[in-house]
Amino acid sequence: MKNIALVNDSRFDVMSARKDFPLLARMVRGKPLAYLDNGASAQRATAVIDAVDDYERRHHANIHRGVHTLSQEATGLYEAARDKVVAFLHAASRHEVIFVRGTTEAINLVAQSHLRPILKAGDEILITHLEHHANIVPWQMVCEQTGAKLKVAPMDEHGEVHADAVEAMMSERTRLFACAHVSNALGTVLPVRRLVAAAKARGIATLIDGAQAVPHMTVDVQDLGCDFYAFSGHKLFGPTGIGILYGRESLLERMPPWQGGGDMILTVSFLKTTYNGLPYKFEAGTPNIAGVIAFGAALDYVTKVGLDRIAAYEHDLLAYATRRLLEVPGLRIIGTAADKAAVVSFVLADAHPHDIGTILDYEGVAVRTGHHCAQPVMDRYGVPATARASLAFYNTTDEIDVLVKGLHRVREVLGA
Amino acid sequence: MSDLRDLYQEVIIDHSRRPRNFRELPQASHRADGYNPLCGDRATVFVRVDGDRVSDVAFKGSGCSISTASASMMTESVKGKSREEVDRLFTRFHELVTGSPDKKDQAVAPELGKLAVFSGVCEFPVRVKCASLPWHTLKAALEGEAAPVSTEVSESSSGDGGGKAR
Questions:
Q1: Which of A140, A246, A415, B47 keeps 20 to 30 A from A174, CA to CA?
Q2: Domains observed in chain A
Q3: Domains (ranges, CATH) in chain B?
Q4: Measured distance CA(B158)–CA(B150) in Å, rounded
Q5: Would you name the residues of A annotated as active-site residues?
Q6: Which of A24, A373, A381 is nearest to A180 (CA)?
Q7: ipTM (interface pTM)
Q8: What does the longest C-alpha to C-alpha distance in chain A come to?
Q9: Could you tell me the pTM of the whole model?
Q10: Of A39, A107, A415, which has the smallest distance from its Cβ to B166's Cβ?
C-alpha cells in the first residue's frame, strides 16, 4: 500500500489545474460552465494562449525562407515544437514527425501517399467496427481509386475489439491495418500493441488513430511498434488546425509527396523538380506556424502536469461518473469495455440526445450529442445518436454531480 | 427556467410522446424522405392529394422531441388544405421558427393556429432544423422531388474524407 504522502504526491490538485484554463471560469446561461465535451475539442491553457500571443506580437515571419532575424526566430520556434513532438511520442528522429492540419489529414495522407501507389485490385485494408468516419472514409476513397476492398473487424456488445477476431481477418492480401487507439464514441481502449504485433508478423503496415488517446495516456510509438500514428492538437489542449502524422522513416522515405508546392522542394525547373527530404517533403506551403508553436506549448504543459498523473486522476473520475450516471433511472451506458478512457456515452430512456443536450446546456453543462462521426457504431447499438460526456483532467466530481442533476431535469421536462 | 419551457411547451411534449398520424399511408400519392445528418433525425412524409387538396397526410421516422412534435402537428395542420394554403403555411412556419427579422416584433400569424407553440424555437438556432425538417420533407413530397431531402445538402455532399469534431 502506498502511504498518504505518496498518494498525494502522485496526484495533482484539480482546482489548481483549472486555474490554468481561463475559459473554465466562464458562465453559460447564468450557470458555471461544466465543460464535458473534451473529446470534441479540449480547452486551452494560458501557456498555450500566451505562446500564440508572444509569437504573433514578437516573432512572426515566414519560416525556412529568410536570412533575417524574424524568420530565423520563427523557424527556431517552429522546429523546436517538432522536437517536442519527437520527445512526446518517443519517435526515433525528427524525420518521422510531419505537421498536418489534423488527424483527418494525416490519415488521408497515408491513404493517398503510402497506399494508393501500391494497392492493387483485390488487396485489402482492414479496420474495426468502432472507427471514426475519418478512419473509414479515406480508406473507402482509396479503395474506389484502386479496386481494393475495405474489411471491417467486429466489436462485441461492450464495444470491445478482440485481437483474435481482428487477426482472423488479416490475410495475405491485407496491405494496411488501421484502428483507433481509443474509440471516440465509446471510450474503449483497443489492444493496439497486440494488434500491431499481429499485423507486423504478417508484414502488414499499421496506422493508429490516436486522436482520443493522447490526452489520456502516455504514447510511445516505438513501444507500440506501429508504422503510422495520427493525432490532433486541439484535443490535447492545443490549437485547432494542427495535427501530427508520425511515420516510420523507412516508409516515409519511400512515399511520394502528397502535395506539391513551396518548402517541399530542393530545386525546381520546368524540366525537373527534386523533392526536399523528410519531414519537409510532406509539408508543402506555408504551414500553420502559430498553431505549431502553440501546440509545442501545449505539449510542454501536458508533460509538466504528467500524463501518468492525468491517467490516474481520470481513472477515478470515470469510475465516479459511471457510478453516478447509472443512478439515473432509465440511463443506459453505451460502451462498457473493461478498459476505457474517460468517455461515457449514454442514452436516457426514450429521450432524444438532442433534447438532452439542449436541456443540459441550460444547466451550464456542455456534452456532445449525435452520432459522433461514428454511424456504424450507432447502428451496431441500434440507436440514432447518444449523449457523450468526455472528461479531461480539469473536470471535477462536482461537475459530474451537475451533469446528473441536469439529467434529472431532462426526465422532468420530457416526462422521460 | 421559463425560457426552457418556451421551447419545451406541454403541447410539444405531448405530440412528441404521442405523435398523431404516425403511420404509413398506403394510398399516398406523394412521399419524400427527409434526413438531418447532424442529429440523425429521419422523417418520411406521405401525402394523398385529391384534386387540389391534401386529403390525408402521415409520417414515419425517428427524431428528437422538436422534430417529432413538429411533424405530428404539421400533419394535423395541413390535412384538408389546398396546396396553395399549404405553401403559405410553410412560409409562415418558416418565418416563425427562423425568427425572420422583419416579422420578429409582429404577432404570430393567426393562420398558424396551434403551430404558434414553436415560436420558442427561434431562440435555439441549432434546433431550427429539427422543427423545419418535416416541413421541408412535406414540400419535397408535394413537389415530387425524388432525392431524399437533407438539411445539410452542402456539407453531406462534400467528400473530403473526414468527419466533424469527434
A1: A246
A2: 4-32+306-414 (3.90.1150.10), 49-304 (3.40.640.10)
A3: 2-146 (3.90.1010.10)
A4: 13
A5: 373
A6: A373
A7: 0.81
A8: 72
A9: 0.91
A10: A39
